[in-house]
Every structure is written in structure tokens, then in C-alpha cells.
Design brief:
Elements (H helix, E strand, L loop, with lengths): L11 H16 L19 E5 L3 E7 L8 E6 L2 E8 L20 E8 L4 E11 L2 E8 L12
Antiparallel strand pairs: 1-2, 2-7, 3-4, 4-5, 6-7
């Protein structure tokens, strides 16, 4: 479907996903996200956001980093993940002739607007196996409450 430098057989679903991404990018003339909660394609680190009864869970996928290289801050209801990913060491002495270098490197920053019921005083962050897990507690008033029926 798409001409590439490297030929790799693709399944139908992978081809359809690539086509959908290409159409989505082409419809956004200014290069900005085409949805209210979307991020620009290729944003780093990619994130998943969910909610439990007691917290908001944010997972950022950032392999190849040290925990000390990641900054997590909360200010005015905005959770920010930032840091720097070092470049891959590609010395000429390795006797490797590089044809492709797709691993992204450099400074990065992602911001997530937290809902009003988030308790920004109750934030935990843990980095393990390339995944940053951030848990933001919810205020007591926002948590489900059992009401006894009389």
C-alpha cells in the first residue's frame, strides 16, 4: 500500500491502521491534533490515562531512561512529564554502517490537564521497566459513596 525503503509484509489490519493515520494527518492542515483529546502523532512519551474509584492513573511509556532523568510536576491542575532522552551511541569505531536510526532522542514534555476532583496533594510516581506510572488521588467528595436505603 505504501512504498517504503524496507519491505515488510503487513497484515490487513496494520495496513488499515496506517491508512487511517495518514488520512487523519492529512485532514489537519496545521499539523495540530484533529481531536479535542488527541496529541500530535509521534508525541513522546506516549501515554494512557484512566480512572479508578479512588485515583486517576497515567501511564507514560518511556523506555531507555533513568528514573532520575524524568521530571513530574503538578501546577494549577496540570500534570507535566518532562525530561531528556540521550542519543544512541553511534561511534564510527563500531564498524556499523547505519541505514536507519528511528529511535527518537532529545528533550520531551507532555502535559495532562487534571479534572477538578483530582487531589494534587496526593500524587505518586513510579518508573519501572520503561513505564512511568503516576497515580493522582481523588478528593473524598469525588469518590463513590454508599448510601443506605431506609
Amino acid at each position: 500500500m505504501f512504498d517504503t525503503v524496507f519491505h515488510r509484509p503487513q497484515g490487513l489490519l496494520e495496513q488499515l491502521a496506517q491508512l487511517q493515520q495518514a488520512i487523519s494527518r492529512s485532514r489537519s492542515a496545521d499539523g495540530l491534533p484533529d481531536g479535542i483529546r488527541s496529541a500530535v502523532a509521534g508525541s513522546f512519551p506516549p501515554i494512557n490515562i484512566g480512572r479508578t474509584e479512588r485515583s486517576i492513573e497515567v501511564y507514560a511509556f518511556a523506555p531507555g531512561l533513568e528514573a532520575q532523568a524524568i521530571d513530574v510536576t503538578v501546577e494549577r491542575g496540570v500534570l507535566r512529564i518532562s525530561g531528556e532522552r540521550p542519543p544512541t551511541d553511534r561511534r564510527a569505531s563500531d564498524a556499523v554502517q547505519w541505514y536507519a536510526a528511528e529511535r527518537w532522542h532529545g528533550r520531551f514534555s507532555r502535559a495532562v490537564t487534571l479534572p477538578e476532583e483530582a487531589d494534587t496533594g496526593s500524587v505518586e510516581a513510579q518508573y519501572r521497566d520503561g513505564v512511568l506510572r503516576i497515580k493522582v488521588g481523588l478528593r473524598e467528595a469525588a469518590q463513590p459513596q454508599r448510601i443506605n436505603v431506609q
